[in-house]
Design a protein that fits this description.
mainly alpha, 6 helices
Length: about 110
């Protein structure tokens, strides 16, 4: 990864954050909670993927339609996030695999 890639990545992230700040306040709060949750338990490819920008697109559409954020995702933010990443490989999966591999090695 070169310096140009880092600079481009920062530009994209700043543009993404500007889109988040353009959302209504309740959407921003829920987005920030979702982002924290996904960074903790989320998919391994979260930073490379389109999940976070997709959430902003979804929220922007809901806000444009005049819907409240909880009308879109329901009352349980974590359950909504879990449903988004249900088919993705997570850091918890990677950790579990490393423990299993270590355990198998120790048994030999």
């Amino acid at each position: 990864m070169g310096i140009q890639d880092i600079i481009e990545g920062k530009k994209q992230w700043r543009a993404h954050l500007a889109r988040v700040k353009a959302l209504p306040p309740d959407y921003q709060i829920v987005y920030n909670e979702m982002q924290k949750y996904l960074f903790k338990v989320g998919p391994v490819d979260l930073e490379d993927g389109h999940l976070l920008p997709g959430i902003v697109d979804f929220f922007a559409g809901g806000a444009a339609d005049g819907k409240g954020v909880l009308e879109l995702i329901g009352p349980d933010v974590a359950a909504f996030c879990d449903d988004l990443i249900k088919d993705s490989r997570t850091y918890a999966d990677v950790y579990q695999e490393s423990i299993s591999a270590k355990s198998a090695t120790e048994k030999k």
